[in-house]
Amino acid sequence: MTAGPGVAGSAAPPHRAALAVLAGACGLFALLQLGVATLLPQIQEAFGVSGSEAAWVVTGHLLVGCVATPVVSRFGDLYGRRAVMLCVLAVVAVASVVSALTGSFTVLLVARLVQGVAGGLFPLCVGLLREGFPQRSLSGPSGLLSASFGTGGGVGIVLAGMFGGGLPAVRWLFAAAALLAVVLLVAGASVLPETPRRPATRIDIPGLLLLGTVSTCLLLALTRYGQEGLGSVTGAALLAAAAAGCALLLRVERRSPEPVLDMRLMSRRPLLCLNLVSLLTGLVMFQIGVLAPALVAAPRDTGYGLGAGGAVLTLVMLPMQLGALSGGLLSGWLRESGRLTARAVMGTSTALFAAGAVVFAVLPSGAGGLALGTALNGLATGLLGGAMAELLVQASPTGATAVTVGLNGVLRNLGGAFGVQVSSMVLAVAGGASSHPSATAYHALFTGSAVLALVAVGAAVAFPRSPAPRQDVPVPPGHTSRPIRPTT
User: Fold this and answer.
1) What integer pLDDT is reported at residue 366 of this predicted model?
2) How far, in Å, CA of 278 to CA of 268, rounded?
3) φ, ψ for residue 387, nearest 5 deg
4) Using an 8 Å Cβ cutoff, are 378 and 150 in contact?
5) pLDDT given for residue 399 in this prediction
């Protein structure tokens, strides 16, 4: 595959192998996020920890991903996206091997934090699509990347069904992640294209540290409230620290030449709408992804649990991953064929997120109702992924695509982290001395998810029909996008 030195539109389509590697990287990203979230009950059982402690296996991973996403994106500018992606895959492979072999929850948690660097895979993939693919070909490839989320997340569910949960399912999930990372590393070194290096790029270290500190304080506060009740003094102190840190973060970011939270970009209507959609749908997606397996594992005497193992978990959760797979492919086809615009696809997906939460809130407990709810959630995830990538590229000012895609990924991870941790806190508080919360707690969580998804629908509708990016944002030297010459 070659490309001439002309405009981007003259570049030849990339080799299919390169696109397959990018899709595999997105699948690995989903496996480490949604796949692991599905097995939280098994992790809790295998390592003998509480639900709030097990939740940090997902929450901590997402939190590190919030910080790692902009760092990895900046490194992609500095050293080339191909080289940085290969480094990230190597780190993920090592951390996955450790996760598969350890018998200690502490070691597992540390390895999961290291795996958080995988949060940078998606913006790297989008950047490679942006610079390695013609603009007219973006819809199809971005839809394929979105579809790969269903494939990656489904691995954890299949393993749970094969091994019936417990430690074997957890070990095989991380072994699969390690194997996939190694395969992608070897293949990527051969087929991924080079990208330009931009030595003028800077990393906003103070902003990243403050963002990580504020998010950690908020999530730890939720954990303390879940453990000690709503009157927790420690939780209140952590919330106060988070508020002070947030004020300082805003002040630092206004003065930073290349802030991780660019207020000027975030305040623009198109990007404000897209970021709000990602934040809220990330929360809803992970909340449902965590609560549905919990309902499957809960005993029947609770009145809502199915008291079932791996086979029923597969029946309930696999529709979510199949929905994500089909939704991603459908998203690319609808946009590439001109049947629906990316804006219309985004609006449809947010409505499906709301519909899935409503199904969980109103239908009686049962495998059929849970499967329908997860299928809607997965279909919404697949539809949104490809459309979001295209809309971010359209709405980004010249030279700011990497920044806006990275920030959007940060907010999605933050939404997911809060979705998991809020769910754990509410269930812990509602459970009290009992080991299982009441059905009312689940109903309240799903109702809240439906309300937040409806707010996301409003944000999608508010997105302008013609989000032509303005060109008046100062762009540092070396930040302009230009055609690249692939290596193969």
Assistant:
1) 80
2) 15
3) -65, -40
4) yes
5) 62
Question: SS3 for the chain, per residue?
Answer: CCCCCCCHHHCCCCCHHHHHHHHHHHHHHHHHHHHHHHCHHHHHHHHCCCHHHHHHHHHHHHHHHHHHHHHHHHHHHHHCHHHHHHHHHHHHHHHHHHHHHCCCHHHHHHHHHHHHHHHHHHHHHHHHHHHHCCHHHCHHHHHHHHHHHHHHHHHHHHHHHHHCCHHHHHHHHHHHHHHHHHHHHHHHHHHCCCCCCCCCCCCCHHHHHHHHHHHHHHHHHHHHHHHHCCCCHHHHHHHHHHHHHHHHHHHHHHHCCCCCCCHHHHCCHHHHHHHHHHHHHHHHHHHHHHHHHHHHHCCHHHCCCCCCCHHHHHHHHHHHHHHHHHHHHHHHHHHHCCCCCHHHHHHHHHHHHHHHHHHHHHCCCCHHHHHHHHHHHHHHHHHHHHHHHHHHHHHCCCCCHHHHHHHHHHHHHHHHHHHHHHHHHHHHHHHCCCCCCCHHHHHHHHHHHHHHHHHHHHHHHHCCCCCCCCCCCCCCCCCCCCCCCCCC
| Nearest Cα to Cα of residue 419 among 456, 385, 391 | 456
Residue type, 463: F
Please list, residue by residue across 447-465, b when 16 or more beta carbons sit within 10 angstroms of its beta carbon and e when fewer do.
Answer: ebbbebbbebbebbeebee
Token pair for 436:
């299982």
> pLDDT tens digit string along 392-432?
878 877 666 667 777 787 888 888 888 888 888 888 777 65
Length of the chain, please? 488
Q: Which residues contact 2 (CB under 8 A, 6 or more apart)?
A: 12, 485, 486
Q: What is the pTM of this model?
A: 0.77
Assign residue 446 a region: left if phi > 0, alpha if psi is -120 to 50, beta otherwise?
alpha
Residue 394: how many other CB atoms lie within 10 Å: 18
Pick 264 or 96 by higher pLDDT: 96
Structure tokens at 401: 């695509």
Tokens of 422: 């809020």
| Gap between the Cα atoms of 76 and 266, Å rounded | 22
Through-space distance between the first and last CA atoms of the chain, rounded to whole angstroms: 5
Is the Cα dihedral 118, 329, 400, 191 positive or negative?
positive
Spatial CA neighbour of 133 closest among 380, 344, 401:
401
CA 446 to chain centre: 20
- pLDDT above 60: residue 466: yes
Question: What is the rounded average pLDDT of the residues 236-253?
Answer: 88
Give the residue from 142, 94, 488 showing the smallest Cα distance to 331: 142
223 burial via Cβ count (<10 Å: 0-12, 13-18, 19+): buried
Single-letter amino acid, residue 214: V
Query: How far is it, in rounded angstroms, from Cα 278 to Cα 284?
Result: 10
Q: Which of 283, 417, 293, 307 is nearest to 357 (CA)?
A: 283
